[in-house]
Specification:
The chain is of the alpha/beta class. It is about 45% helix and about 15% strand.
Length: about 750
């Protein structure tokens, strides 16, 4: 068994910043010993629970005392001699310097972790310059025989190389200490009264004086805005006394120190840290992980966490004026907070997940890949037709594959390999039909049973009625522990008689074989509980089956580009374009839509009806008269099914969905994300997406006059039209942004395992 010693300047940081890494090292069958000052009272019990052996050594990190420093060096030599470690990992100036010097006397693999350059490398005074020179000499001597020097950002790495402290060949850069994205789970901000939060030790170099000064400016203009500060005192020469902090009490609420920052982040809207320099700020990462926009500086270790105007803003170090300016921007743009917070979470998942950081750390110190990255939990996702993967839940499997071993199952098509390549997961073709076909269905159940019994997933996840029945039955027979069916619509809502009885039986059978039931709208949930089952049903997030990629579905074309698209389809720039997207079938309200359009065209000759979708003559065929009108009228443009609908949305003036039944229609969400006013029937799903008279209009189902009047209002009432157009995109982002939905879906799966 290998022995690993970790040397820390503060005992508490071993849990806060290295706790996950320590557990990973222990999981590699290594003994871990830590060397640090004695723990604070609040952390003693935590370390007992972790069963970590600690050797107490006070580094006096904020003092310069040659006699004490020599004592530390000798003490470390004795510890290394008695403990005989295989690996030593040190962080903090004194642990790195004196740990490195002591390690020279032994055959030890020594690794230095530079989390930031700190006080010693800041400032222009003679005393600071002298200190910098001395520290650089000590670093160079200590790191001469180090196996590797690990940095939290490139700038600090380059600084050490430029000062000739270390060779570039012996350096590595990791993304900070990482953050536990499960512990710091996504929590959408509740925007009632905008509040700012700063979490930091009470140090001048953390920009706290600038924070206080900017808050004072903003408070004069917006007296109800809340500014909170959380963090402990610090004995550093740069420390800010509690007496000084108390003088800020008219505009800063100081909350003291805490063991758990999550409640403070949860109750805040924007996280702020105007620091002069960092390694990579852990407090920023924790706030990002919980979905908070970030306001920080362009200082080293801060700027890496923010993409300007995406998940927050960076201001110049020390600029009170710019800090106050961006605070005011957040106050005046509360609708942007949710989207920026989602972007923060996405950045953390991609770059700063502690599992990814620790994976790199273990490889650097020679302990190989960590177990936590192994995707031991497996999910099989089943749908009856593969087009659902490339449209309805596009990108979902790719996202989930960051956390699970994901496999897809659907009927054979020529696009299956493309879907597999895009999602980056395995695709198994097993033919299923959408109709009631007993022989084919039995064959499909048998093939699903064979495949599932071989793969043995932790979760089988199905959606669409046929895939739900077959997938839930097959996984039930295989005794898969978690069987989740997602209800995205109910065809039975339009049937009567024996067909209704049969479809109800099939639905109830599907629910019986499942262990959890999801559905994509609250209205549908109520209908199911009222008419089909009393079992608990989960609506993921605010509803939807996949959310919407609000950057993908965004109006980005200029007027010239839109004119070319219109010209291609014989639409003039003056035409008012009414767009429908979906299958051209009876229960989508196509008969009523075409009839009302024909009536309106007599009054408004510059109308165009744009239909994006294919006919389905096998299910809910439209009237022959309607089909003839579609094919014969020049003002009706039918382009068929299109995998990329953005060009058509970009030229649309009004999006209509006069459907008879829906779960939660993606087409409405996608059109709304484009900023197009919406018009739909007042039915389950549609009435959850549309805020009537705010983001669109809700009309009566199967009512031609109601449909005609609604369209006409959007054509003639310019003030009303402009009002709903200005609202719709922001509302869609708040409720259905895709990354937010995926986070909620992942969390729901996590609860089931």
């Amino acid at each position: 068994m290998k022995k690993v010693i970790i040397i820390a300047p503060i005992y508490d940081s071993l849990i806060n910043f290295r706790g996950d890494l320590i557990e990973e090292i222990k999981n590699k069958d290594c003994e871990v010993v830590t060397i640090s000052p004695a723990p604070s009272k609040q952390y003693r019990e935590t370390f007992k629970d972790k069963q970590i052996k600690n050797i107490t050594l006070n580094f006096e990190r904020n003092k310069v005392n040659p006699f004490h420093d020599f004592y530390m060096f000798v003490k470390l030599v004795i510890i290394f001699w008695t403990q005989s470690p295989d690996i030593v990992l040190s962080y903090g100036i004194k642990p790195v310097i004196y740990g490195g010097l002591a390690a020279k006397f032994f055959k030890i693999n020594f690794y230095a972790l530079v989390t930031g350059v700190g006080y010693a490398f800041q400032g222009d005074s003679f005393k600071r310059k002298l200190l910098t020179k001395l520290v650089a000499i000590l670093y160079k001597s200590a790191l001469k025989k180090a196996n590797e020097v690990i940095f939290h950002n490139k700038e600090n790495c380059n600084l050490f190389v430029e000062k000739n402290i270390i060779s570039k060949l012996k350096t590595s850069v990791v993304n900070g200490s990482g953050v536990d994205i499960d512990k710091f789970n996504f929590e959408p901000p509740v925007i009632k009264n905008v509040s700012f939060l700063c979490i930091s030790r009470l140090l001048g170099e953390k920009g706290l004086r600038e924070y206080a000064a900017a808050a004072k400016i903003v408070k004069k203009k917006f007296p109800n805005i809340i500014f909170n500060l959380v963090g402990p005192e610090d004995t550093s020469p740069d420390g800010i006394s509690l007496n000084e902090v108390m003088t800020w009490s008219d505009y800063i609420n100081y909350k003291g120190a805490t063991l758990d920052v999550r409640p403070f982040i949860k109750s805040s809207n924007i996280f702020i840290l105007p620091s002069y320099h960092e390694g990579i700020s852990r407090s920023i990462l924790e706030a990002m992980s919980m979905g908070r926009p970030i306001l920080t500086t362009d200082g080293v270790g801060c700027k890496e966490t923010v993409e300007d105007n995406v998940n927050g803003f960076k201001v110049p170090v020390g600029s009170i004026e710019k800090l106050a300016e961006k605070m005011i921007w957040f106050i005046q743009n509360p609708m942007s907070l949710n989207q920026m917070g989602i972007a923060s979470r996405k950045i953390v998942e991609q770059r700063y997940d502690v599992r990814k950081v620790n994976f790199e750390m273990l490889n650097i110190i020679g302990l190989g890949a960590t177990r936590s990255l192994a995707k031991s939990e497996k999910i099989i996702i089943i749908t009856s037709v593969p087009i659902s993967f490339s449209t309805l839940i596009r990108g979902q499997a790719k996202y989930l594959s960051n956390f699970y071993n994901v496999k897809l199952v659907s009927s054979f098509s020529s696009n299956n390999s493309q879907i597999s390549d895009f999602e980056g997961v395995e695709f198994k073709s097993i033919n299923m039909t959408r109709k009631i076909t007993p022989i084919q269905d039995l064959k499909a159940i048998y093939r699903l049973y064979k495949y599932i019994s071989i793969e043995r997933p932790n979760i089988v996840y199905t959606f669409t009625p046929k895939a739900g029945l077959l997938g839930m039955l097959a996984s039930f027979l295989c005794r898969i522990p978690v069987r989740v069916h997602n209800i995205v619509g109910l065809p039975l809502m339009e049937y009567t008689g024996w067909k209704l009885v049969l479809l109800k039986f099939i639905e109830r059978l599907t629910y019986f074989f499942s262990t959890r039931i999801f559905c994509n709208s609250f209205g549908l949930k109520k209908y199911i509980n009222d008419n089909l089952t009393s079992l608990p049903i989960t609506v993921v997030g605010q509803g939807s089956i996949n959310g919407v990629d609000t950057e993908y579905f965004k109006d980005k074309l200029n007027n010239e580009e839109k004119s070319l698209i219109r010209l291609k389809h014989n639409i003039s720039n003056n035409d008012f374009v009414i767009t429908f997207l979906g299958r051209i079938v009876r229960d989508k309200g196509i008969n009523e839509l075409v009839e009302s359009f024909v009536l309106l065209l007599k009054k408004y000759p510059n109308l165009k009806l744009l239909l994006v979708g294919d006919y389905d003559d096998n299910l809910n065929r439209i009237d022959d008269e309607t089909k003839d009108l579609i094919s014969s009228m020049e003002s009706i443009i039918n382009v068929g099914f299109k995998s990329d609908i953005r060009d058509f949305l970009s030229i649309s003036d009004l999006f209509v969905l006069p459907s008879y039944r829906e779960g939660l229609p993606n087409s409405l969400i996608e059109a709304g994300s484009f900023g197009i006013p919406l018009l739909a029937t007042n039915i389950n799903g549609c009435n959850e997406i549309i805020d009537n008279n705010e983001t669109g209009l809700l009309i009566k189902m199967k009512d031609i006059n109601s449909l005609k009047d609604g369209i006409e209002k959007c054509i003639t009432d310019k003030k009303f039209y402009s009002y709903i157009k200005s609202n719709v995109r922001d509302k869609i982002i708040m409720k259905y942004e895709q990354n937010s939905f995926w986070l909620n879906l992942k969390d729901e799966f996590k609860k089931t395992i």
